[in-house]
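The records we work with from here on pair a chain with its fold. The integers have meaning only within a learned vocabulary of local backbone shapes. A complete example follows; check for yourself that the lines match position by position.

:::
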Amino acid sequence: LNEGTSGTAVTTSTPGSKGSVTSGGSGGSVASGGSGGSVASGGSGGSVASGDSGNSRRTNPSD
């Protein structure tokens, strides 16, 4: 799964977290059953958020 138009590619995301996951979005932001970061696969100029929106995901936070 590597459909990158704007240089961004989404492989797999966790639905139900913060960012919504949608497949086959066309332009703009598409939210499916959630609000926050939208994920557009194979779309054009859509915002891509994997798991978290804005802040980067931290593995094993020690703070």
Observations:
- Residues 42-46 have pLDDT under 50 and may be disordered.
- The chain has no helices and two strands.
- The CA atoms of residues 22 and 39 lie 6 Å apart.
- The radius of gyration is 12 Å.
